[in-house]
Write a structure and sequence with these properties.
By secondary structure, this protein is α/β, with parallel strands linked by helices. The chain contains 15 helices and 17 strands. A 10-stranded mixed beta sheet has the order 7-8-6-5-9-3-10-16-4-17, sandwiched between helices. Helix 3 packs across helix 14, helix 12 runs parallel beside helix 14 and helix 13 runs antiparallel to helix 14.
Length: about 525
Amino acid sequence: MYFTKNKIFKHYIMLSIPLFVLSSSGVTAEKPDIKLQQAKNVWYTSAQETLQKNLAQAPIIGKAKNVILFIGDGMGVSTVTAARILEGQNRGMKGEENILSWEKFSNVALSKTYNTNQQVADSAGTATAIMTGVKSKAGVISVDQSITRGDCTSSKDHHATSFLELAEKSGMATGLITTARLTHATPATAYAHVPERGWENDTRIPETEKTAGCKDIALQFTEFSYGNGIDVAFGGGRQNFLPKTVKGPEGKKGKRADNRNLVSEWKQKHPTGQYVWNEKVFDSIDLKKGGPVLGLFNPSHMQFEVDRTKDKGGEPSLADMTEKAIEILQQKKDGYFLYVEGARVDHAHHGGNAYRALSDTIALERAVQKAVAMTDPENTLIIVTADHSHVLTIGGYATRGNPILGKVVKNKRNGEPKPKDDFALSLDGKPFTALGYFYGKGAEIDQPRKDLTNVDTTAKDHILQALVPVNYETHAGEDVAIYARGPSAHLIRGVVEQNYIFHVMYHAIGMRSQP
């Protein structure tokens, strides 16, 4: 663009208008008299509203009575973005403008997820970091990085106390919810200490390691003795609590070889406790009676959200479990810690099935909505994060509002969308989707890429195409987001190591570490 000297000078003067003036009371803000043609544009006004909202926010400094930690297992930033769009499109929106419940939180940070021995992490090591405040190796449960994986002797005297154990020690009530097996890696870090995440029942531990003194994860849950014990625990994994000679209510036998029925042992240990195994019994939980309550809703993992109604026994949703747990825990006068995992986001990604991964992310979002509605931000710290990401990508230059699970339709050169069935074509002359995986079983081996023209890529069983063929799609190594609201939420900022999350929770409840 061409400017005369006068125009250049005038432009310089306009940019030099001071934004602050001195007064007798000090520096005060002065609005510059600048008229912007875009000032009435909807994007401009909405951004101004966001600015004013953020300017009005002040950190909540006081002690947190309660802490709720949500983990979306495998819920990387691309998963959150895609789920945001899908949730909006499910409600008739274009989708991109949508916002999820945790995205309204006042503070956001990025978490570095690597394990001490792996650039791309696993869930055991990452959950250990979040739950104990120290990073550790992949595949280990709440033990430090000095141990050898799978070696019981090396793990002795190297247990890392979990936040749930600390909460119990401080007199808080505690709750644990997962859509995976209750003995799976992420939930296990709350109450167990083992050098191998696979030791979920006694048959999985080598005899040499049993002799060395290690106990399986299900047994450690049953024998948990910190404080008054875990008040509420909901999840799957019933088979790890039952002997091989016993059939569960859905017809599948247990997996234990020691002939111990840990469900019966739990009932004996908690004579006033409530044990539930399906949605019908779950709905009849006596809230006035309170905890302890144990719910084991599936022999293995609980169902994906879209398959939940087909479960033989019937399962409650993640939101329903969260609501019930809070109702029980709120009866405790000394506050509570609730640990909630949306586990099957991860499992769906591993299978290359974005439909189920995003649907389970939305199920987690509903659980967070419940927690937000039921708690006071002045006394309850809520943190939502992921343990790691996945190799899901979003691309292709799709037009605004294009179905996030669909094939890409681009815009015309004038910026308007092409007809919805005018799919963009890659160099092989075939359409492609907005979502895809770098690694996955949707990749072709030594043959041309599948033609998606007549394939419904939005179907719940569709496996997304991938570049590198593997049987099991992998985790990704990039940072994941941390979202926080409530007391000490202002400490969630910047780019932090994943184990820092523990320290914010620890600070929020007013505890101080001791040597």
